[in-house]
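Protein modeling request. Please complete all fields; requests missing the sequence field cannot be processed.
Requester role: graduate student
Desired output: 3D structure, token encoding
Chains: 1
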Amino acid sequence: MSMGMDELDDKARILVVDDTKFNVVLLIDILKKAGYKHIDSVYSAHEGLKVLGISTKGRVNSTKDKHFDIIVTDLIMPEMDGLDFCRHIRKHKIFDNVPIIMITASNSMEDLAAAFKAGVMDYIQKPFKFTEVLTRIQSALRLKKALDEQMQKEQELKLSLNSYRIQVAAVDASPNGVAVITQDKNIVFFNEAFVRMMGLQRENLNNRSILDLPINYYCLEDIVFYIKNYENLVDFDKDCTIYNSKGREKIIASLKIRPVMNVSGKIYRFVLVFNDITEKENFKRKVFADLRIAESLQQKLLPQPILTERVIIKGIYLPETFLGGDLYYWNQIDENRFGIILIDVMGHGTATSLICMYLRALLPSMILNNPGVEYVISALNDYMTDFNQAARNEIDYYCTAIYVIINTLENSIEYVNAGHPDGLLIHQDGKRFKLNEGCPPLGLGIPFEIRKGVYHYTTQNVIFLMTDGVLETYAKNNVHLNEEVNGFLADEWNQMTDIYLADRIKEQVARLDRQDDISIISIKIVERN
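Delivered output (529 residues):
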């Protein structure tokens, strides 16, 4: 047993849902090595619902044999994805306190917002790490234990309220602010945590209207609307702002309202429970602000277009969210040669963007001082291998790349493709050549031979380089890339302008549904007479 496993962890039942067998085997291996003994796994969301005893028609037949303490699910799965899987689970109160952790390769704020809205408690970014998986699962199990204890206390409190016996001592021990109000919105009971949150004197709260409290106006409106229309509404659960006159200037709290019946079965009171989430919200805002700064820095490191009589080079970069794992760079080596490189580091988010910035710092000297395409690719492989050895990550990072040198004096193109999507060389007469000679991805720590590709051109040409996010986006939206490129090029051959292929594709891709970073380089070359 490892990582400080306690009695709860040792007995915890874990359900793993992922359509990729490799991910399931890897997760189970990680969990078993950490000491978890009770792990079930399935390969689809439908199987997951069946194991939990949930029917897609809304019925649930959950027994102790089907009880789980935590569910770990993939986001992207066939037939039913992870979001719909979560929504089906969250329809049933019996699973309210069961944490769901989403495994996803996406770092999109929209995707994460949709996941949390669907009922996900936390997420793990692909490729996941041993320590991250265990830390997140242990945190979720601790939270579940706390939620179970809190739910038990709330059930006990509800029984006491229904029988007119409010156990003040038990409620006062709660860290959440609790108040009971009448249908006229007057406060008839409150605990010590509620007093602290409001920043008012206890004597000033008795029989005071909830509308007089320092709570933001829109939240008060929602409270009034709920009390008037509770019979036609689901339970109230929203965030609100409290303008505390003591200590902190502003408190952000999640507010739950539940109606209470008297012995005649009529609603006569409402219980308000305020949970202080200020620290959590401030942390989220700080993270978002830091990500914005990093995003701006990453964008500024991208090169400006090259517009010459013989060569036009332009690129676009669309990260999936704030930060991405794509990088492109180019430079004019001498009067006749241009070096262009496109790199895609595995994964998304902060770690991959930092690796991109590390590589970006190395590229200028490598390209300007070393004329051969093979040397630059070999040097990048050495740098990635050295990085992995120095970082000592549990999972080694790798990257794909394609490096091209255009020689306008000799009308030649040299390139090496290191495990990257094929580059496209498109001749003015419509002929196409794939730029796929090269070697495996870089940083894997394995020996390999580098094969250079060479092409001599005799007329106008376009080179089109892209990351795999482009291919995946077009495939996901049922759009044929080849047809689109043909259409874009139809009216381009006679226009030596800087606004052409890259911009045309950027306009289209920006409108498509995507889940990966996208980088595109388009290069227009004119033969020297």
